[in-house]
Amino acid sequence: QVQLVESGGGLVQAGGSLRLSCAVSGRTASYYAMGWFRQAPGKEREFVSAISWSGGSTYYADSVKGRFTISRDNAKNTLYLQMNSLKPEDTADYYCAADSRRNARPSNSANDYDYWGKGTLVTVSS
Questions:
Q1: By three-state DSSP, how is residue 48 classified?
Q2: How far apart are CA 20 and CA 1, in angstroms?
Q3: Under a CB-based contact definition with an 8 Å cutoff, are residues 5 and 118 in contact?
């Protein structure tokens, strides 16, 4: 069983930065591709970023490219999302997710992810 717990959300002014973390438990989780998704009030969940199990391959939504950086530390079983130059439209609940398919490429499809955290709220004020 894999459990994901996000942290690091909060209130920040536009232009500011936050770093989200996702603590991963489960003995084989280091081999899973991981992703970040977000859902704003009244909107559909959308893809933000994903990373391969090794960290060697990453994938970003166009809306965050150049501002957000995904990374992982498999020794610490932790996934990160560094968010810079935040905008009010980045306000959302942010979820980390794990794709249990072995050697999976980073995916932007929520259907490819088997395990989900409960989310952490990011609020960006203008």
A1: strand
A2: 22
A3: yes
